[in-house]
Structures are given as structure tokens and as C-alpha cells.
Amino acid sequence: MSNEITVNAGNFEDEVLRSSVPVLIDFWASWCQPCKMISPFIDEIAGEYAGRLKVVKINVDEEGDLAGRHGIISIPTLILYKDGNVVNQRTGAAPKHDIEALFRDFV
């Protein structure tokens, strides 16, 4: 998780909206089994795409307001931001290549 950033309401604007590279947000919770299933893929992506893609994690239990603003009703949900705007998203566990398809055209 060393290449991932934990985001909260206090740093969301700086880390996501003002990012110079696309940002993949992983909305997750510690009790969520599908979140645990994709966590290794998210870790690998954060390392492999460092410098071209920022990977951030938002814990829905700790950041309910951010989750609510994004309409999160199921997790894991992955949302891709580019230039401060949502450009892609996916809900549910997926293989690594499907997760990469979310951002491949934007990095």
C-alpha cells in the first residue's frame, strides 16, 4: 500500500480534484470481502502505474459524507477522476485486467 494514498474529506480536493494525473479511487471497507479480493490488484496497479496514475483509498465507514457525495451504495466501487471530473467507474470485484480497463485510455 506504499504507493496508495488514504483520502478523507480534508485532503480530497488536493489529492483528487487538483491532481495532475488521473486518480483511481477505491471505495472500500475493512469488513467487505470483495474489497479484500481486489486489494492485491489495487496494490499492484498503484506500483505499476506510479507517476501516471494516482491510486487512493477511501474507507466508506470513516468517510460516509464522501461516499454519499459519490452515490456509493455498494462496495468495492472504483471511480476514475481526470482533470477534476469523473470519467469512469465500476462497482464490484473484478480481475486486474478489468480494473485496468477503467483507466487504460486515460494514462
Globally, the shape reads globular
The number of distinct structural domains comes to 1
> Tell me, what is the CATH class?
Alpha Beta
CATH topology name: Glutaredoxin
What is the number of helical segments per DSSP (H or I, 4+ residues)? 4
Percent of residues in helical segments? 25-40%
> End-to-end span in angstroms?
20 Å
CATH-level-2 architecture: 3-Layer(aba) Sandwich
Record keyword descriptors for this entry.
107 residues; alpha/beta; Glutaredoxin; five-stranded mixed sheet; 4 helices; 34% helix; globular
What does this structure look like?
The chain is α/β, with parallel strands linked by helices and 107 residues long. The protein has a single domain, classed as Glutaredoxin (3-Layer(aba) Sandwich). 34% of the residues lie in helices and 26% in strands. The protein contains four helices and five strands. The chain has helices at 12-17, 33-48, 64-69, 96-103, and strands spanning 4-6, 23-28, 54-59, 77-82, 85-91. A five-stranded mixed sheet has the order 1-3-2-4-5. A hairpin with a 2-residue loop joins strand 4 and strand 5. 31% of the residues are buried. The mean pLDDT is 96.
